[in-house]
């Protein structure tokens, strides 16, 4: 299906198009074989912000569902659903706001059966049947699916214990039981860490839609060299099975100091015969999870023997499903773009996986999306999955950088990010998110809200550690050196060195915000009667007030609650440089003075040996720098 070229100015929000064309609309009907015993869901997606209404028309001509709500942007999409469709021919119609003889609705005919068709089965030579190809239409549907999957109000901070909790929710997952196999009701466990998450999402969508899929085996870099990929495997050319005695590889690595590695299932040397859905689950949990890791996302920008390729920084390309790989190994997936309004700055929302399998949504800002230019670490930044296509002879292959550049479906390969320094990157992202000048006070409050979000996320992490000990958990061994950031087991699950280093960086960003405004006043809607120095002083007053006013509570060792303000967290920055150890009481982990009432309930102390290690490693946190790779 052809779509419009992606060539709009990223700094300007596109105006609404008036007349939809069938060739510009991607349509998803779910389930694959609609029948009266399953809800009928329809998605229309487009690159342009069309004004119109999507309706579902029953065989008797009645409209059973209609919505003018246009989501996303870009792509823009509409959803319609009916829980119990009648047997017969349905019509999904996207009608323009002002229909004329020359501007008719875009209509899709849908046949609803009286009984289930049973769904597809296994095919020889492929993990799942390939029925379609990656193109702009399917990429738009992929973005729409991800946005709907993780949708929540802007001021919410949603999280889920595991990805399968989201996928099993039919209110979120447009592809729930799409194949007609009741595949999302079989209790499949899908629990990715941060490096796995984009691969798992891409694989799930490809599995449901019958699209090709593959992954690379890559190094993590080292010795001053970035990660490189040595081989590529796909659903029709499987990676040779590991020996039953081989230990599974984790997503960790000394370079990946912020990476959330997790234990993987061993890849079976000879998996037993399974149905299509069960076989997909095994492939995901053992084969893919044991093969991809943080290095997969940090390959050099110009390298094309990779799973990802870099994209330009603009509103067209930074869509739901776009991946962000930071230089230290953490990976996030864009879930939604919220455009700038007269009342607020533009926002990118993203999801990531954690070591315990938790999937959470967060805002783009400097405290969450770290950026650096260091050839030894590879290329950080926003990237898309490299399209997998059929080559000559039918074998699957990936598009090269040149092919992506020339493609009318893509055309978005770019090395622009590799040319930006750190400040240039964040300045560019500010321009993309909010093309119009920002009110400086409102922008500061957005930054403070993001810091508050990170602090509250840390509350959950520290509380998990407290519960571990309350439940009888023993003292946890502390890894040596840079391994404190990337090991496995209880230390990884309950200690917080990666989170705390990020939090310290986030505090620096908020404290430095008034100076940033003074440095770049043209970026902000500065009051005409005030100088940059005056605005800076005003912002410093607002910052002090907001930090004192925003409060949170944590649970102390004895189960009682204690309330702190964000100001307390900022004031305790020095203590937070040594507050990540799971073997310390929660009071100490929040930087409480040992002689204070707050710390009176503390009953646990890390050993002298571990405290000595922490003192040795403190410089990493104090200087906000990663440790050297061994």
Number of strands: 23
The major sheet is characterized as:
7 strands, antiparallel
Rg on CA atoms, Å:
25 Å
Quote the distance from N terminus to C terminus.
49 Å
Structural class determined from secondary elements: alpha+beta
Approximately how much beta-strand content do the residues carry? 15-25%
Question: How many alpha or pi helices?
Answer: 15
What is the general shape?
globular
| Average of per-residue pLDDT values | 90
Into which percent range does the helicity of residues fall? 25-40%
Task: Give me the side-by-side strand order of the main sheet.
Answer: 9-16-15-14-13-19-12
* Low-pLDDT stretches: 1-12, 243-270
Describe the structure.
The strands form seven sheets. The protein has a seven-stranded antiparallel beta sheet with strand order 9-16-15-14-13-19-12. The protein has a four-stranded antiparallel beta sheet with strand order 1-2-6-5, covered by helices on one side. It has 630 residues and is α+β, with helices and mostly antiparallel strands. The longest helix has 31 residues, at 440-470. The chain contains 15 helices and 23 strands. 27% of the residues lie in helices and 18% in strands. The protein has helices at residues 136-149, 163-167, 197-209, 276-288, 401-406, 422-433, 440-470, 490-494, 497-511, 513-519, 532-549, 566-571, 573-576, 586-589, 608-622, and strands at 26-30, 40-46, 52-57, 63-67, 71-72, 76-82, 88-96, 106-112, 159-160, 214-218, 229-234, 308-310, 323-325, 331-338, 347-353, 359-363, 373-374, 378-379, 381-385, 388-390, 396-398, 551-555, 561-565. Strand 20 and strand 21 (396-398) form a beta hairpin.
């Amino acid at each position: 299906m052809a779509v419009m070229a992606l060539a709009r100015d990223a700094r300007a929000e596109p105006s609404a198009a008036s007349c939809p064309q069938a060739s510009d609309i991607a349509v998803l009907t779910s389930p694959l074989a609609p029948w009266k015993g399953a809800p009928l869901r329809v998605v229309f997606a487009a690159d342009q912000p069309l004004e119109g209404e999507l309706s579902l028309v029953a065989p008797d001509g009645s409209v059973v569902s209609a919505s003018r709500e246009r989501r996303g942007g870009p792509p823009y999409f509409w959803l319609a659903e009916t829980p119990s469709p009648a047997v017969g021919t349905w019509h999904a119609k996207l009608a323009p706001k002002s229909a004329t003889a020359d501007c008719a609705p875009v209509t899709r005919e849908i046949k609803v059966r009286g009984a289930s068709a049973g769904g597809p089965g296994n095919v020889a030579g492929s993990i799942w049947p390939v029925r379609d190809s990656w193109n702009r239409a399917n990429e738009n549907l992929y973005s729409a699916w991800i946005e709907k999957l993780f949708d929540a109000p802007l001021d919410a901070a949603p999280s889920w214990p595991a990805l399968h909790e989201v996928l099993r929710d039919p209110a979120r997952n447009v592809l729930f039981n799409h194949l007609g196999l009741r595949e999302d009701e079989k209790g499949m466990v899908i629990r990715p860490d941060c490096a796995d998450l984009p691969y798992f999402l891409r694989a799930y969508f490809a599995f449901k839609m019958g699209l090709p899929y593959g992954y690379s085996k890559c190094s993590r870099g080292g010795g001053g060299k970035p990660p490189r990929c040595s081989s590529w495997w796909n659903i029709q050319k499987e990676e040779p099975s590991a020996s039953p005695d081989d230990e599974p590889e984790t997503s960790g690595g000394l370079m990946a100091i912020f990476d959330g590695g997790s234990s993987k299932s061993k890849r079976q040397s000879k998996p037993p015969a399974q149905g299509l859905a069960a076989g997909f689950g095994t492939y995901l949990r053992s084969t893919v999870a044991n093969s991809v890791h943080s290095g997969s996302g940090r390959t050099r920008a110009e390298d094309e023997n990779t799973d990802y390729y870099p994209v330009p920084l603009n509103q067209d390309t930074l869509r739901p499903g776009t991946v962000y790989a930071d230089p230290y190994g953490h990976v996030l997936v864009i879930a939604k773009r919220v455009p700038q309004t007269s009342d607020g700055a533009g926002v990118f929302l993203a999801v990531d996986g954690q070591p315990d399998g938790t999937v959470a949504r967060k805002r783009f800002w400097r405290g969450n999306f770290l950026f650096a230019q260091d050839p030894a670490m590879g290329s950080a930044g926003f990237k898309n999955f490299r399209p997998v296509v059929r080559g000559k002879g039918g074998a699957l292959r990936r598009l090269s950088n040149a092919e992506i550049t020339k493609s009318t479906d893509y055309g978005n390969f770019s090395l622009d990010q590799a040319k930006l320094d750190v400040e240039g990157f964040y300045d560019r992202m500010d321009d993309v998110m909010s093309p119009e000048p920002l009110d400086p006070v409102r922008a500061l409050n957005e930054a403070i809200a993001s810091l508050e979000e990170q602090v509250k996320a840390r509350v959950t992490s520290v509380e998990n550690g407290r519960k571990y000990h309350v439940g009888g958990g023993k003292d946890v061994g502390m890894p040596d050196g840079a391994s404190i950031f990337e090991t496995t087991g209880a230390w990884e699950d309950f200690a917080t060195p990666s989170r705390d280093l990020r939090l310290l960086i986030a505090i620096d960003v908020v404290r430095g915000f008034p100076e940033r405004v003074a440095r770049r006043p043209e970026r902000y809607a500065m009051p005409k009667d005030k100088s940059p120095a005056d605005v800076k002083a005003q912002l410093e007053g607002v910052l002090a007030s907001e930090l004192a006013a925003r409060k949170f509570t944590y649970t102390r060792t004895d189960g009682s609650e204690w309330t702190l303000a964000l100001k307390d967290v900022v004031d305790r920055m020095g203590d937070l440089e040594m507050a990540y150890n799971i073997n310390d009481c929660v009071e100490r982990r929040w930087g409480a003075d040992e002689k204070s009432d707050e710390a009176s309930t503390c009953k646990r102390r890390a050993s002298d040996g571990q405290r000595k290690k922490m003192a040795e490693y403190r410089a990493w946190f104090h200087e906000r720098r990663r440790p050297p790779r061994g």
